[in-house]
Amino acid sequence: MSDPILETRGLNKSFGPVHVLHDVDFAVYPGEVTALVGDNGAGKSTLVKCIAGINGIDSGEIRFNGEPVTIADPRAATDLGIEFVYQDLALADNLDITQNMFLGRETTRGRMFLSDGEMERQARDTLASLSVRTVSSVRQKVANLSGGQRQTVAIAKAVLWNSKIVFLDEPTAALGVAQTRQVLDLVRRLADQGLGVVLISHNMNDVMEVADRVAALYLGRIAAEVHTQDTSTTQIVELITAGRSGDIGLPAVVASQA
Questions:
Q1: Domain ranges of the chain
Q2: Per-residue DSSP letters for 140-191?
Q3: What integer best gives the mean pLDDT of the chain?
Q4: In whole angstroms, what is the distance from residue 5 CA to residue 79 CA?
Q5: How far apart are CA 156 and CA 119, in angstroms?
Q6: Between residues 248 and 164, the one the model is more confident about
Q7: Residue 42, φ and ψ in degrees, nearest 5
Q8: How far apart are CA 236 and CA 216, in angstroms?
Q9: Torsion-angle region of residue 108: left (phi > 0), alpha (psi -120 to 50) or beta?
């Protein structure tokens, strides 16, 4: 097993008197899809925001490539190579695919002119590297794209910048069957290219299909971390709803260390 590219160790976070995260140990491995699951209020969003530099941590540490790091703001996360694709996708409908992929990071020629042709080439190359065949032109306006195509553009935007880890928040929510298939295939290809992928999802079918391992949060604690091939949908649902699984045969917090 390779070493994790990203870890949190003993991470704690409170908001006033509410202790949201309790000694969370979480790891992301290169070339793997790690599903982060948990019920509403389990702490998933808070954990992700701590890693993204949106929320500061109270105690514990974040390690990247084995070294402790301080992620004080989202720019620091980006500089490390950690990208996030949130549910709202953060795409501008009035811009085309190329303009969206480079939004806020436009390539310039000198100090004044945007290198439009170079950005278009890089956008095409990135989509091609991900084997995306559902987008006919990188000059299509995002407003004219389907839900699956929009999700594809958001993911391609995240990996354009030589990212090492991509967090995907409910990437198949509100998608049809065919579009879900396209997005899940893309998620798998990201891992196959060596990226660490974190899939945040309530869809257990998606989790079981594409994830290599599952980390289940329960009331702000990691209930268990299990390999997908060694568990079942029923066991994962038990971890999400009760913090333990009788089928696994160990208290959940112990199962994560077994």
A1: 1-81+165-258, 91-163
A2: SBGGGS-HHHHHHHHHHHHHTT--SEEEEESTTTT--HHHHHHHHHHHHHHH
A3: 90
A4: 14
A5: 13
A6: 164
A7: -75, -20
A8: 7
A9: beta
Report for 49-53, 100-104, 153-157: range of highest mean pLDDT? 49-53
Of 50-59, 228-237, 249-258, the least confident: 249-258
Q: What is the predicted pLDDT for the residue at 8?
A: 97
Answer whether residue 46 shows pLDDT above 90.
Answer: yes
Distance CA 186, CA 112 (A): 36
Q: What is the pLDDT, as a whole number, of residue 256?
A: 43
Strand-pairing partners, residue 21, are: 13
14 Cβ partners below 8 Å, 6+ apart? 20, 58
Closest among 51, 102, 56, 103 to 81, alpha carbons compared: 51
Give the pLDDT confidence score for residue 246 in this predicted structure.
63
Q: Give the pair of three-digit tokens for residue 193.
A: 């290219």
Q: What is the total residue count of the chain?
A: 258
Task: Give 115's Cβ-side CA count (13 Å radius).
Answer: 12
Binning the chain into helix, strand and coil, the percentages to the nearest 5 are: 35, 30, 35
Check whether 251 has a pLDDT greater than 50.
no
Confidence at 114, pLDDT banded by 50, 70, 90: low
Give dist(CA 45, CA 129) in Å, integer: 30
Helix (H) or strand (E) segment spanning residue 79: helix 74-80
Helices 147-159 & 116-129 angle (0-180, nearest 10)? 110
Q: CB 174: neighbour CB atoms within 10 A? A: 10
Mean pLDDT, range 143-171, rounded to an integer:
92
End-to-end Cα distance, the chain: 15
Q: What architecture does CATH give domain 1-81+165-258?
A: 3-Layer(aba) Sandwich (3.40)
